[in-house]
């Protein structure tokens, strides 16, 4: 087991926050790439609905977690 360091903690925290294919948009059911925290509640959005609601939500959001850049990743085999 690796000793806990600040770097390990950041990676571990990032992995816990990472959205998966099981996380679905609250508006349309597509895969969620954006998590918005408002107080003790969370909303999940696909990239489309996250962008559509961003201006209004950022006024009240306490956290904005956006992984929509993953849509642009290319994988080589």
Summary keywords:
alpha+beta, 77 residues
Descriptive account of the structure:
- The chain is of the alpha+beta class and 77 residues long.
- The protein has a domain at 22-72.
- The chain is 30% helix and 18% strand.
- The protein has helices at residues 6-17, 47-57, and strands spanning 34-38, 41-45, 63-66.
- It has a three-stranded antiparallel beta sheet with strand order 2-1-3.
- A hairpin with a 2-residue loop joins strand 1 and strand 2.
- The longest helix is centred in the first third of the chain and has 12 residues, at 6-17.
- The chain is globular, with a radius of gyration of 14 Å.
- The termini are far apart.
- The model is unreliable at 8-14 (pLDDT under 50).
Q: What is the terminal separation in angstroms?
A: 31 Å
Number of beta-strand segments: 3
Radius of gyration: 14 Å
Uncertain spans: 8-14
Shape: globular
Please tally the helical runs, counting DSSP H or I stretches of 4 or more residues: 2
Order of helices and strands: HEEHE
Average pLDDT reading? 84
Tell me the fraction of residues in β-strands, as a range.
15-25%
Task: Name the helicity range.
Answer: 25-40%
Largest sheet: 3 strands, antiparallel
Q: How does the helix and strand content classify structurally? A: alpha+beta
Task: Describe the secondary-structure layout.
Elements: H1 6-17, E1 34-38, E2 41-45, H2 47-57, E3 63-66
Antiparallel strand pairs: 1-2, 1-3
